[in-house]
Amino acid sequence: MRTLRQDRILQRQTMTTDTPQDDTQEGGQEGVPDSAQDNAQDKYIVPGLERGLRLLGEFSSRERTLSAAELARRLKVPRSTVFRLLATLEMMGFVERTDGGREFRLGMAVLRLGFDYLASLELTELGRPLLDRLRDEIHYPCNLVVRDGRSIVYVAKSVASRPFASTVNVGTRLPAHATVLGRVLLEDLSLAELRTLYPEDRLEVYSESTPRTVEELYEMVQRDRQRGYVLHEGFFEASISTIAAPVRDRSGKVTAALGATIPAARIDPDQLDNMVEQVRRAAAELSRLLDYRPEVPRPFA
C-alpha cells in the first residue's frame, strides 16, 4: 500500500499533464504555491533511496512476487531504473528472483530487519529499567549492547549522576574483539566461527590488552564464558574498568551484554565483588524476562 506522501510524489511527477492550479488555493500558504512548499521539504530526499524503498513497499502478502515490468509501471519509472534498483537490492539480499528469474520477491534481509527490530525493541524496553536500577545501586553508568558482525552497538544506556566523561552514546559502535562487552558477545562462537568472522592473520590492536590473533581471542572468551562475567581494567580505554555479563534469550544464545563502566581510580576493592554480583544479577534477570531458562542438572539416580 502506498502512503499519502508517496501518492503526492507520484502526482507531482505527472503534473505536466494536469491543469495548473491557483497559487493561493486552499492547502498552501498565502502567495506560496503548494509545489514550492513541497520542493522545500523534499530538498533532503535522496531519489534513488526513495525509489528503492517504494519498490520494496509494492510487495505485500497479497502480491508476493512482481515482475520488473510491473514494478516499472507502478513506480512510473523506466525499466532500466527498476533493473538497477533490483540488482542492488538483490545483491544486498532484500529481494530474490523467482519463477525462473522473471519475477522477484522479498528476500531474507527484509525478514532479518523485522526480527532484529522486534528483538531490539523488546530487549531495550525490558532492559532500560534494569539499567536504571543497577545504576542507582552502584552509582556508575550502565550499558546494554548487542553485536552486529565485528562491532558492538550500544542500544541502551543509563547515565550516573556523578561526573564521568564518556563519548559513548546509544548507537555508538566499537570493535567487538577489543572491548569487554564485545568479549561477552563472542562467547558462543566456536573457533571456526571466529576465524570466519576474523579471517586476517593479525587482529587490529587498540591497547596492550587486545588479543593479537583469533586463537588468543578464542582462549580469552572461553575463560570469560567459564567465569560467567568479565572484569577488566584498561582493556579498551586506559584507566577505565568494565564489568559485563551475558544476557541470553529463550534459545540459550547470548543476545546482549549488560555492563557497568567504572573509572579505575575510583574503584573500591571492598565493593568490587558486590558490584560484580549486582551486574550478574541484572543480566540474569533480563535473561529471565527474555524467557531464558537455564538447564538444571539432573541428580544421579
Overview of this protein structure:
The protein has 301 residues and is an alpha+beta fold. The chain has 2 domains: 4-9 and 30-106, Winged helix-like DNA-binding domain superfamily/Winged helix DNA-binding domain (Arc Repressor Mutant, subunit A, Orthogonal Bundle); 114-289, 2-Layer Sandwich (Beta-Lactamase), CATH 3.30.450.40. The chain is built from 10 helices and 9 strands. It has helices spanning 4-13, 34-41, 47-57, 68-75, 79-91, 108-138, 180-185, 191-197, 214-227, 269-289; strands at 65-67, 95-98, 103-106, 142-148, 151-158, 173-175, 230-233, 240-248, 254-263. It has a 6-stranded antiparallel β-sheet. Strands 1-3-2 form a 3-stranded antiparallel β-sheet. The longest helix is centred in the middle third of the chain and has 31 residues, at 108-138. Residues 109-292 form the IclR-ED domain. Residues 1-41 are annotated as: Disordered. Keywords: DNA-binding, Transcription, Transcription regulation. One of its GO terms (molecular function) is DNA-binding transcription factor activity.
Kindly summarize this structure in a few lines.
This protein has 10 helices and 9 strands. It has helices at 4-13, 34-41, 47-57, 68-75, 79-91, 108-138, 180-185, 191-197, 214-227, 269-289, and strands at residues 65-67, 95-98, 103-106, 142-148, 151-158, 173-175, 230-233, 240-248, 254-263.
